[in-house]
Amino acid sequence: xxxxxxxxxxxxxxxxxxxxxxxxxxxxxxxxxxxxxxxxxxxxxxxxxxxxxxxxxxxxxxxxxxxxxxxxxxxxxxxxxxxxxxxxxxxxxxxxxxxxxxxxxxxxxxxxx
Length: 113
What we know:
The protein is mainly α. Helices cover 82% and strands 0% of the residues.
């Protein structure tokens, strides 16, 4: 498997954990004290880091740190939009499309060399 694909898959999985750690508590733990939500979020984020750190180390063997960052931002939006709509029950907005187009521009400029 190419390094860039392995990195992208690992970053995607870690981003699922990150998204739930950062935002999942807003729906599932909103009646609990904030410190309970923080402890649970930290527990979820632990698993994110177990995947994200090796993914970045693997990716850095062939990608620049800027390329890794832009890849992560594209993955973040790709994970966040379905999460927002399906889990958080937020409306799908046209703004997501515009943000995605801006990220495509970022991908072009950071990967063109």
